[in-house]
Design goal:
single chain; Lipocalin; 17-stranded antiparallel beta sheet; two-stranded antiparallel sheet; 19 strands; 15% helix; 56% strand; globular; signal; Autotransporte_beta; Autotransporte_beta_dom_sf; Autotransporter domain-containing protein
Length: 361
């Protein structure tokens, strides 16, 4: 049996390590690039979600007219399975901050946000609106850091084309951070509209695009620049079942990202796409008693990725959203709304509590 000399053995060991690193490093770069492309598509779909919310507000204004000022306070917490007591055998779900003072866990990401939106409305055929969210990120020690901040802001103009149709255009800015390596910015120019084929049905469409930029320029993100766009189409109907109003709907949404890698590992631009199908139903009831109005509602929504293509392969995920809410008109021109939103699947289970106070003055 041949015996290797120590020097030759060291050379073989170094060669094996070099071969292992040559395989591991590209895989790590590919995983980081995959996360960046996914975050870019999430930014595009977040811009689409805000436009869809605006279209829904125009189509179904609710129990009061559009308010002049909105204050939204959201308490959002990601649920993780973690052992709270070292004597427990099985991990228990971490309780939301609303019910559990979890002061021994660091907060590298924000867990609450305050949204302030001012809407300018007119009595004519056009409405100017604006709304948005800015989250101030935190360092690992809990200090606020602007470079970890997230933004989801939009402003636009609605134009009433007819009794059954409304269209509009909007400018938006979405920003997200990726594991402390930097941030992605996506300013968008979008258009949207809603049309009622029948008195009890509707068709909503949105589309938008914008340049994709990473900041700061010297960050560790694999994406240097690019473009991202989105398009959604929603069809739904409304019908009454006794005192309840049921609103089933189906939506097809797609996001496309064209990215230029920062290094030379990939030649040319990369094209990634993501298409999802969404089905849901909203059940609501309006109760009027002695001048007061209360409107409880429940929304169930299922999201399924039907195609998620990129140069690194395909992956399919699904999400389930359950959102009970109650809206009440406390006094003339004063409306309060409470919503608890639970999302299961995707990147992890999340819970959020939203309290909204609206007034017109």
């Amino acid at each position: 049996m041949p015996v290797l000399r120590p020097r030759k053995r060291r050379k073989l060991t170094l060669a094996a390590l070099a071969a292992l690193l040559s395989v591991a490093v590209p895989e790590a770069r590919a995983a980081t690039l995959e996360d960046s492309l996914r975050s870019a598509s999430d930014l595009a779909l977040a811009a689409a979600a805000r436009l869809n919310a605006r279209v829904e507000a125009v189509r179904d204004p609710g129990i009061t007219a559009m308010s002049g000022l909105d204050l939204d306070l959201r308490i959002d917490r990601t649920q993780v399975d973690r052992t709270l007591d070292p004597f427990l055998d099985a991990p228990q779900p971490d309780l939301p901050t609303l019910f559990w003072d979890n002061d021994f866990e660091g907060r590298p990401a924000p867990s609450s946000e305050l949204e302030v939106s001012r809407r300018l409305t007119s009595d004519g055929s056009g409405d100017v609106w604006g709304s948005g969210i800015v989250e101030f990120g935190r360092e690992a020690d809990g200090m606020i850091a602007a470079r970890h901040s997230r933004a989801d802001i939009a402003t636009g103009l609605d134009v009433s084309l007819s009794v059954r149709a409304t269209a509009g255009a909007a400018l938006g800015l979405n920003r997200a951070t990726i594991d402390g390596a930097g941030s992605l910015d996506l300013p968008t120019l979008s258009t949207y509209g809603t049309f009622a084929p029948t008195p009890d049905s509707y068709l909503d469409v949105t589309a938008g695009a914008g340049p994709l930029r990473s900041a700061p320029a010297g960050a560790g993100l694999p994406i240097a620049s690019g473009e991202a766009g989105f398009a959604t189409a929603t069809y739904g109907s409304r019908f009454a079942v006794g005192p309840l109003t049921l609103s089933p709907y189906a939506r097809l949404e797609s996001a496309v990202v064209r990215a230029l890698p920062r290094d030379g590992a990939w030649s040319g631009a990369l094209l990634a796409s993501r298409t999802s199908a969404v089905t849901g139903v909203k059940t609501s009831r309006v109760i009027r008693r002695q001048g007061a109005t209360i409107a409880p509602a429940l929304r169930l929504e299922m999201r399924q990725d039907i195609a998620r293509a990129r140069p690194l392969g395909r992956r399919v995920s699904q999400e389930l959203t359950i959102a009970p809410e109650i809206e009440a008109e406390l006094a003339p021109h004063w409306t309060a709304r409470l919503e608890h939103r639970s999302r299961f699947g995707g990147d992890g289970d999340t819970r959020s509590l939203q309290i909204r106070l609206e007034t017109t003055f």
